């Protein structure tokens, strides 16, 4: 029977432990532990959380058993008292006993006492499930506006949206793990993956630790953790997460250490049935400089892409965004925006915000289509895709039913001259090319010929209605092609 006090026994244990693991690990995992009591040759120690206990169990089981045997004899036992968080102000403790498992085969005490990096006991089943333990409070980093209700469904996102919803309702217990969502900029990846987090939290409350993080922040935090010798705490933190949402995973490209760390976290969470949600601007296989083992894991669950929204979805999104911003827009204005902002949802939002700013600064109650055109003119120009002089020549020659090569030749036939001049005029309108460059595309003519062509077209547009109509029609055709 031992006459030691709990403090003295633990002190002796710490001496042994300290000699066998790195100072950093000792400080991180053993220093914060308090001895509670020593009764019936059973030493009770208090650990800060269930996770702490599990970590010790998984990584230091062998070492603790042999240490205890040295201090208390072969039948010495260890009991953990886990601090339970009941509410923010209230805490209580619950005790669990270190199970009497056999020592790992072919290990002598010294080998066992070398800490988790050297001793790998394999997957240890944790026999203790302690009900009612709350997860440590984690700031989920979620934006409350990114919810399913505000995410308009369309053909462009139907699969991704319904999978996301299913995941949020049943995180981890579904075959979409990981859920990998990809698509171009401003198409709604962040909104959708955050909706999963918000919905899961709404469904499960504090039972579920949800974390949203950009891959850049993950990388920065990891670098900091290494710098401050806190890599194991970093890992420990991520291993507590039930729903881990990592945005813009393509930024892991070329960052080998971060990829390795993420690989281990991914494996641990996946193995424990925790949900992983990832986003990227491209499909897994297309991300450069990412380890093959990660790429293959990214493809384990479900990959879904987001497409550019079609007209009807753009219209519905605009209507919704206008509503959310307290601005009423007529169908004409909504149509105008939906027709002119095609490439992504962020631009649609930008258009609404610009109109909103205009309306409030100018004290305008209702925005007329003409007004909207004027206000959004510059944005529309920016969102145009560029068009080449050759493409303009094709449009014009198609319109006049002539062979495109003709406008580049020396011919002076009246209808060819007219088409050539209009094509030069439109090239000036739709491209940033200099007069000299435009001339070069029309059979090496000089810039004065281009100036002459432009002024001739402008003059005729003012004097001949038919000519104006022709140029306007062509202008619209080309404009449509650039949207
Ligand atoms: N289907 C949708 N319904 C409503 N709003 C949407 C939809 N898709 C995108 N949005 C909105 O468009 C904006 C841009 O979306 P988000 O930031 O999620 O895009 P992203 O794909 O993550 O872009 P990036 O790759 O540039 O980060 C957000 O304000 C989002 O709310």
UniProtKB/TrEMBL annotation:
CC terms in the record's Gene Ontology section: cytoplasm; plasma membrane
SUPFAM superfamilies: P-loop containing nucleoside triphosphate hydrolases, TrpR-like
Keyword Zinc: no
Principal location class: cytoplasm
GO molecular function, one term: ATP binding
SMART domains: AAA, Bac_DnaA_C
Top-level taxon of the source organism: Bacteria
CDD domains associated with the record: AAA, Bac_DnaA_C
UniProt record, GO biological process: DNA replication initiation; regulation of DNA replication
PROSITE patterns: DNAA
Location of the region described as Disordered in the Swiss-Prot/TrEMBL record: 90-115
Keyword terms: ATP-binding, Cytoplasm, DNA replication, DNA-binding, Lipid-binding, Nucleotide-binding
InterPro entries linked to this entry: AAA+_ATPase, Chromosome_initiator_DnaA, Chromosome_initiator_DnaA-like, Chromosome_initiator_DnaA_CS, DnaA_C, DnaA_dom, DnaA_N_dom, DnaA_N_sf
Subcellular location: Cytoplasm
Domain Chromosomal replication initiator DnaA C-terminal: 388-457
Region (Domain I, interacts with DnaA modulators): 1-91
Span list, region Domain IV, binds dsDNA: 360-483
Residue ranges constituting the AAA+ ATPase domain according to the UniProt record: 175-306
Binding, ATP: 186, 188-190
Biased composition (Polar residues): 106-115
Family classification: Belongs to the DnaA family.
Domain topic, free-text comment: Domain I is involved in oligomerization and binding regulators, domain II is flexibile and of varying length in different bacteria, domain III forms the AAA+ region, while domain IV binds dsDNA.
NCBIfam families, per database record: DnaA (TIGR00362)
Free-text function comment from the UniProt entry: Plays an essential role in the initiation and regulation of chromosomal replication. ATP-DnaA binds to the origin of replication (oriC) to initiate formation of the DNA replication initiation complex once per cell cycle. Binds the DnaA box (a 9 base pair repeat at the origin) and separates the double-stranded (ds)DNA. Forms a right-handed helical filament on oriC DNA; dsDNA binds to the exterior of the filament while single-stranded (ss)DNA is stabiized in the filament's interior.
Subunit structure: Oligomerizes as a right-handed, spiral filament on DNA at oriC.
Name the record gives this protein: Chromosomal replication initiator protein DnaA
Gene behind this protein: dnaA
């Amino acid at each position: 029977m031992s006459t030691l006090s709990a403090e003295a026994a633990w002190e002796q244990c710490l001496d042994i432990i300290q000699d066998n693991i790195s100072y950093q690990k000792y400080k991180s995992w053993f220093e914060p532990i308090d001895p509670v009591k020593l009764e019936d040759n059973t030493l009770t120690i208090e650990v800060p959380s269930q996770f702490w206990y599990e970590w010790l169990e998984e990584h230091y089981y062998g070492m603790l058993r042999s240490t205890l045997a040295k201090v208390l004899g072969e039948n010495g036992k260890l009991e953990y008292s886990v601090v339970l968080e009941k509410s923010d102000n209230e805490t209580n403790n619950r005790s669990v006993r270190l199970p009497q498992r056999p020592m790992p085969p072919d290990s002598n005490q010294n080998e066992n006492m070398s800490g988790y990096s050297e001793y790998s006991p394999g997957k240890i089943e944790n026999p203790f499930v302690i009900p009612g333990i709350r997860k440590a409070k984690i700031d989920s980093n979620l934006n409350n506006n990114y919810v399913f209700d505000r995410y308009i469904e369309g053909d462009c996102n139907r699969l991704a949206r319904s999978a996301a919803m299913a995941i949020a309702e049943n995180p981890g217990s579904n075959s979409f793990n990981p859920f990998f969502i990809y698509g171009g900029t401003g198409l709604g990846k962040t909104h959708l993956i955050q909706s999963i987090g918000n919905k899961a939290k709404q469904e499960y409350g504090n039972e579920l630790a949800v974390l949203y993080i950009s891959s850049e922040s993950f990388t920065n935090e990891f670098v900091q953790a290494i710098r401050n010798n806190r890599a194991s705490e970093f890992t420990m933190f991520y291993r507590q997460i039930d729903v881990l949402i990592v945005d813009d995973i393509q930024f892991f490209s070329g960052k080998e250490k971060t990829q390795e760390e993420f690989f281990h976290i991914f494996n641990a969470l996946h193995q424990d049935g925790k949900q992983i949600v990832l986003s990227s601007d491209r499909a897994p296989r297309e991300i450069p400089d990412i380890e093959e083992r990660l790429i293959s894991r990214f493809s384990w669950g479900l990959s879904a892409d987001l497409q550019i929204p079609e007209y009807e979805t753009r219209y519905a999104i605009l209507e919704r965004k206008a509503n959310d911003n307290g601005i009423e827009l007529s169908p004409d204005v909504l149509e105008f925006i939906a027709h002119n902002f095609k490439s992504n949802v962020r631009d649609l939002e930008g258009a609404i915000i610009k109109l909103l700013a205009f309306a409030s600064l100018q004290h305008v109650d209702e925005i007329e289509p003409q007004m909207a055109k004027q206000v959004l003119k510059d944005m529309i120009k920016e969102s145009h895709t560029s068009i080449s002089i050759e493409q303009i020549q094709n449009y014009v020659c198609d319109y006049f039913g002539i062979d495109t090569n003709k406008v580049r030749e020396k011919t002076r036939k009246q209808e060819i001259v007219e088409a050539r001049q209009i094509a030069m005029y439109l090239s000036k309108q739709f491209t940033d090319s200099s007069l000299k460059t435009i001339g070069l595309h029309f059979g090496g003519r000089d810039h004065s010929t281009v100036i002459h062509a432009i002024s001739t077209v402008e003059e005729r547009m003012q004097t001949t209605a038919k000519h104006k109509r022709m140029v306007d029609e062509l202008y619209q055709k080309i404009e449509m092609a650039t949207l």
